Amino acid sequence: MTTPVDPTPYAVDVRGVHKSFGSLEVLRGVDLKVRKGEVTVILGPSGSGKSTLLRTLNHLEKVDRGTVRIDGELVGYRRRGNKLHEMRERDILRQRSRIGFVFQSFNLFPHLTVLENVIEAPISAQRRDRAEVETLARELLDRVGVGDKIHDYPKQLSGGQQQRVAIARALALRPAVILFDEPTSALDPELVGEVLEVIRDLARDGATLVIVTHEIGFAREVAHTVVFMDGGVVVEQGPPAQVLDRPTQERTRAFLSKVL
Ligand SMILES: Nc1ncnc2c1ncn2[C@@H]1O[C@H](COP(=O)(O)OP(=O)(O)OP(=O)(O)O)[C@@H](O)[C@H]1O
Predict the structure, then answer these.
(1) Ligand 1 centre and the CA of 47: distance in Å?
(2) What sequence ranges are listed for the domain ABC transporter (predicted)?
(3) Alpha carbon 30 to chain centroid distance?
């Protein structure tokens, strides 16, 4: 009798990742594990490599060295013997469609309605049934509070509403993890709260989230793990009460003293 292999408890498993742009080494050996159902918030000064790290998670940036796994599956590469070969574009797109990505700016397709924006990828990249996807999309748009806007175009919505549509679009993929890259930094201050509320709601529901943000109060509230990055490495990580209130590393203390 064969023993079934336990599925990995990690939605994200990054090991020894290096990434350079020309002579600039932006990631210098990053290790990061994110448990399923947990929220990880990544903090760090500008230029520390936070966005680049997020982009390696779905192969928008190829790593120079190291490995990234999402839900146990190697991202962007297949192993043959002891060699890694880059996946074909089609497989990369399929794999990427299991990772939700909410960017700083809203990135909706301007020529598609709200509903079409949400159903496009599940139908084209995941080949799911249109009726199923459309029903789900309506539910998700209701959930994020834009159920009355489904036939509008992105430019008819506020920034906060567009960002909520972007979150619904990510959820429609039934993703293993949703990555947020400073999801509120392009919003007018009065719209920040409504987007954070939607993310808070996902966190309460047990979604797996990785969030790059400068909202320290929000990090304290929602994160299971806070990761502090500086100079292309993870300097310190742990529960918010540890990293934010009792950091062990001088670089973390210096950063927090500037932003708190
Ligand atoms: N495609 C690219 N080509 C060249 N350099 C890049 C590229 N992408 C990022 N960089 C550089 O890599 C460094 C890290 O950028 P990254 O956006 O990952 O940092 P960050 O921590 O997210 O910063 P911020 O908080 O300002 O968004 C920066 O110096 C940036 O200019």
Answers:
(1) 5
(2) 12-256
(3) 16
User: CB of 23 closer than 6 A to ligand 1?
Assistant: no
Q: For 54-87, how does the pLDDT look when each residue is reduced to its tens digit (9 = 90+)?
A: 999 999 999 999 999 999 999 999 988 988 899 9
pTM: 0.94
How far does residue 49's CA lie from ligand 1's centre (Å)?
6
Cα dihedral 218, 55, 38, 13, rounded to 10, equals -140
Q: Give the atom of ligand 1 at the shortest distance from the alpha carbon of 52.
A: 18
Is 213 a pocket residue for ligand 1 (Cβ < 6 Å)?
no
Taking residues 163-192, what's their average pLDDT? 94
Q: Give the 3-state secondary structure of residue 83.
A: strand
Rounded distance, CA 173 to CA 137, Å? 10
Q: Do residues 144 and 169 touch, judged by C-beta distance below 8 A? A: no
The Cα 93–Cα 191 span in angstroms is 32
* Cα-to-centroid distance, 24 and ligand 1 (Å): 10
Give the pLDDT mean for 9-21: 97
First to last CA, the chain: 57
Close Cβ partners of 210 (under 8 Å, ≥ 6 residues apart): 12, 34, 39, 40, 42, 54, 57, 177, 178, 179, 180
Q: 51 CB less than 6 Å from ligand 1?
A: yes
Q: Which residues pair with 145 in a beta bridge?
A: none
ipTM of the complex: 0.97
Q: Are strands 177-181 and 99-102 parallel, antiparallel or unpaired?
A: parallel
